[in-house]
């Protein structure tokens, strides 16, 4: 099971803060994104943005990063703190 | 030390802590970021700051580790506020002490440039026309790229 979190504008667009999902072994962040769109077709326009950032276990990663069972994955817009 | 809090901070107190009992610190740089009244032509009334608890601290620590590998830093502190902020409120504090000014200046600037592009904080501006999520700016990405 993978825990998926969404933040900021993306959280509001999806109207979802957190969910759990089962993924086939060796799935990447891209694979997770495809799975989420399959489960929630209306999320396509928001998850398709090439500006989104991803973290796995609270470290920024690339879309090709392979996810392990039990990982915490987050999707969010570019950061704007400071 | 990394502190994420809703409350304000006192720059004077933070400065004192950076230099207390440390006669090796010949240079101290402090930076404060504040809520500005005009952003990209929008009249701003206030801000809401969201963050990713846990990852925020982890990413800031990684940024500090990187700074410490590049410059000789004696003491440092990062404070970032979250929640609802008003015009003129402090948002972020970065303080660095070192023996010489070059290290302190560079490290403080690096910490802010990387914080702005890597630490998971998001600003939502409250304006007269409603609230809008702030978009990341190319100039911030360029500023961070200088250090690569």
Average pLDDT over all residues of chain A: 97
Helix content of chain A: 25-40%
- Count of runs of 4 or more consecutive helical residues of chain B: 4
Number of separate strands of chain B: 9
Major sheet details of chain A? 5 strands, mixed
Total of domains of chain A: 1
CATH H-level homologous superfamily name of chain A: Beta-grasp domain
Which two chains touch over the largest interface? A-B, 17 and 28 residues
Q: Which stretches of chain A are low in confidence, meaning pLDDT under 50 for 5 or more residues running?
A: none
Q: What portion of the residues of chain A fall into strands of 2 or more residues?
A: 25-35%
Strand content of chain B: 35-45%
Task: Give me a quick take on this structure.
Chain A is α+β, with helices and mostly antiparallel strands.
Describe the structure.
The complex is a heterodimer of chains A (82) and B (148). With 82 residues, chain A is of the alpha+beta class. Chain A has one domain: Ubiquitin-like (UB roll). Chain A is built from three helices and five strands, in the order βαβααβββ. In chain A, strands 2-1-5-3-4 form a five-stranded mixed sheet. The longest helix of chain A has 11 residues, at 29-39. The model of chain A has no long low-confidence stretch (mean pLDDT 97). Chain B has 148 residues and is α+β, with helices and mostly antiparallel strands. Chain B has helices spanning 11-19, 55-70, 101-118, 138-145, and strands at residues 2-5, 27-34, 38-39, 42-51, 75-81, 83-86, 90-98, 121-127, 130-133. In chain B, helix 2 (55-70) packs antiparallel against helix 3. The two termini of chain B are 24 Å apart. The A-B interface holds A 5, 7-9, 51, 55, 58-60, 74, 76-82 and B 33, 49-52, 54-55, 58-59, 62, 80, 91-92, 112, 115-124, 133-136.
